[in-house]
Amino acid sequence: TCSNDNGNAVVVGYYEGWAKNRACNVFWPEQIPIGVYTHVNFAFAVIDPKTFKIAPSSPDDVNLYKRIMLLKQRGPKLKVYIAIGGWAFNDPGATATTFSDLAASVPRQRVFLESLLSFMSTYGFDGIDVDWEYPAADDRSGREVDFDNFPKFMKRLKETLSGTKKGLTITLPASYWYLQHLDLVNLTLVESLGTWDKGNQWTGNFLNSHTNLTEIDAALDLLWRNDVNPTKVVMGLAFYGRTFSMTSGACNTPGCTYESGGQRGKCSKEVGILLNSEIDDLVKQNSLTPTLYKKETAKVATWGNQWVAYDDEETLQMKSEYAQTRCLGGLMVWAISHDTEDAKYHKALAKAANRKITSLPMTDGSDDAYKDLEVDAPQCKWTNCGDSEYVSFAPEAVR
Fold first, then answer.
1. What's the whole-number average pLDDT of the chain?
2. Left (φ > 0), alpha (ψ -120 to 50) or beta: where does 112 sit?
3. What is the pTM for the complete model shown?
4. Which residues form the GH18 domain (predicted)?
5. 304-346 pLDDT per residue, tens
6. Comparing C-alpha atoms, which of 28, 29, 8 is closest to residue 20?
7. Directed axis angle between helix 106-123 and helix 61-69, to 10°?
8. Taking a C-beta distance cutoff of 8 angstroms, is the pair 385, 121 a contact?
C-alpha cells in the first residue's frame, strides 16, 4: 500500500471533438482549466480502413487541434495526446474490423506507423492513446487472433515511438493484461454497469453506479494477478452519470430494479446518460438532496421514477485516496467537457488529486474568439506537413 495524502501524479482528461456540437452545454478547448490535467487526450482520430493511415475524424478537428495546443502557452508542462478509435469506431460499419485488420498485417502497420509519425509531427501531439474497444471481443467485431496480434502490434508501436520521445498509452477494460509495452494504461472502470446488463443472469436489471468502487476493486485485482505494475495504471472516473427509469419509486436504493435507461438528456441527447452539468441543473430545479452510498462510493439522486448515480467532490476525493493507497499511477476522466460552466467538477478533481488550477478559461469559449486562429507547426519534419485529410465515414459518439 501507499500513502493517500500525496495526491495523484498523473491526471488524464479526454476532450471530445464533438463537444462543440451539443444542443446545449457546448464546450471548447479554451474552457479547459490549466493545472488539473497532466495529459489531455483528444478524442478521436480514426484509421482509414482502405489505406490504414491515421486521419482526423472530421475536417473541423484540425482547427480544434490548433486550439487545444494553445493551452500549452498557459501550461507548458501539459502533454496533449491523440486518441485513436473509440467505441463508435468498432460499431458495425466500414471501420468495424479496422483495428483487427491492422494488427494482423505487418505491411499495413508500416503504413500506419509512418502516417502516425507524420500526423503527430504535423499537429504537435506528444503521444498516442490507442482505444480499441475491444480486441478479441466477438460482439465488438473482434477476432480470436486479436489476442495474439494485439500485443505484437503494441510492441511494434512502442519500438517505433521509442526514439521520438512520444508517449504511448492504451485504454482498456480491466480484463486485458498484455500491458508491458505501455507507458500508461487508462483503465476504463467507468462503465462497469449499465442497461446492457438487463437480462443478464449474473448482473440483471439492478440499480447501481457505473463507477462502483466495489466493482473497481474486483477489476483491478485482475491486473494484480497478472503482475501489472500499478504505477502504469490510471483509474477511470466519470464526469457524467448513468440514469435509469426505476421499476418503483418506492424502491430507489442500489440493488432495486429498473425498467429501462433514464430519460434522454437535453444536452447529452442520449438515453441513460446525463452530463454532470445536466445533473447539477436537475438537482437545483427539483431541490434534490443526493444520497451518498459509501460502499459503492457514489452519489445518487432520484426524482419521479428517474435515478442517477454520479461522482461529486466527496466521492472524487474518496476515489482519489483509493487510487493512491493502491499505488496507482493516477486518474483518468471521461470527459472534460461534461463539467459545469464554473468548472465545479474540475475544481473538485484538482482538490482531490492535490493539484492546483493555475488558469481558468480566458474566454467563454465562443467560436468568434478563436475561429480564425492559425497555428504553425514549425516542428514538422515530414513532407506535405500542411496537408490535411479526414475520413468522412467516421462516426461521432454522443458522449
1. 86
2. alpha
3. 0.88
4. 9-356
5. 999 999 999 999 999 999 999 999 999 999 999 999 999 999 9
6. 28
7. 60
8. yes
Cell numbers found for residue 280: 447539477
How far is residue 90 CA from its own chain's centroid? 16
Q: Are 247 and 255 in contact (CB under 8 A)?
A: no
Side-chain-side CA neighbours of residue 385 (13 Å)? 16
86: exposed, middle or buried (C-beta count within 10 Å: 0-12, 13-18, 19+)? buried
Spatial separation of the C-alpha atoms in residues 72 and 181, rounded to whole Å: 28
Fold of the domain spanning 10-238+311-370: TIM Barrel (3.20.20)
Pairing of strands 39-47, 273-275: unpaired
pLDDT of 169-208, one tens digit each?
A: 998 765 443 344 457 777 765 443 434 344 444 356 888 8
Per DSSP, helices labelled H in the chain are 61-69, 71-74, 98-103, 106-123, 146-161, 213-224, 276-285, 313-325, 344-352, 367-370
Strand partners, 242: 273, 309
Strands (E), the chain: 10-16, 39-47, 54-56, 79-85, 127-131, 167-172, 184-187, 233-238, 240-246, 258-261, 273-275, 291-293, 298-303, 306-310, 330-334
Q: Which amino acid would we find at residue 7?
A: G
Task: Quote the DSSP letter at residue 288.
Answer: -
Please give the Cα distance from 84 to 130 (Å, whole number). 5
Q: Where in the chain are the domains?
A: 10-238+311-370
Question: Strand, helix or coil at 223?
Answer: helix
